[in-house]
Amino acid sequence: MKLTPATRTAAIMLLIFLVWLIAYPVARTLPDATFNDPFEKVFNGLNVLFTALAFGGVVIGLLLQVEQTGEARREEIERSIFELFQAFTSLEFQHVKDSSFRALLAAVKDRDYAQFLASRLFVVEQLALPAGSLGILRELHDAKRGMSDEELVHADRADRLMLDNMLNFFAMLAQRKSSATVIKHCDFAYDWWRPVLWMLGQLQQERYQASPQIQTYCKNQLITVTLVALDQVYGHTPLGTREEVWDYVTTHPKLLAFGLDPRFAQR
Questions:
Q1: Which one, of 220, 224, 226, 219, lies nearest residue 175 by Cα?
Q2: Using N-to-C axis directions, what is the helix angle for 5-29 and 39-88, rounded to 10°?
Q3: Torsion angle of C-alpha atoms 196, 233, 181, 98, degrees rounded to 10
Q4: Is the pTM of this model over 0.90?
Q5: Is residue 9 predicted with pLDDT exceeding 70?
Q6: Potential cystine with 195: which of 8, 18, 36, 252 (Cβ 3.0-4.6 Å)?
Q7: What is the average pLDDT across 7-25?
């Protein structure tokens, strides 16, 4: 049977204690002159040695316990990431991803809708759905083409609620950056989401910085905080300034293929 480090440490401590415990009755059976000088110094030295070893065993045991606690914590993080990966790849979550990406694609194609979408991430100073965006919403989803304007507004709200779930998913993933190796080996399709999320995150950040009212009433974590953490995990070049973000967004091949609104370049 293979002994764990804690079991081995306990065995060593027990052996030291037994040796120390036996030493006294053994010494009592010996003649009185046995431990006179120079043997008395030897015996005292051994007594100190065993005491030190016993204390060392206690310290080692505590260190091993700390190490085992850290290992258990790492295993818990890896298990939670695996559970996130299972959720991300499940059929139920596919609806969340599809709805979220529809909302983000509408933002890519129409800057007015993108500004509307960013405003809806705050509880104050929310913009109304632009009337000019309705055509794009119908274009991106066959199920919306026969809807009235009122029905389309409700359908768009449902998609945006799914986007909230998607943003929360990536925020939770960013909190696991202490287990970056595990995250990097799970395909969360971050490269696909990164450009559209940086576009939305930058618009959200600009609204936050420009509005004292939003800064007063809105304390939720900004999307850019999540993205900075995930970029570090996945090894992407950091986007530190506003100009770097918009250069990345407006030149990204995938966003150009999606039909990026040319007005994003007018900044």
A1: 226
A2: 160
A3: -10
A4: no
A5: no
A6: 252
A7: 63
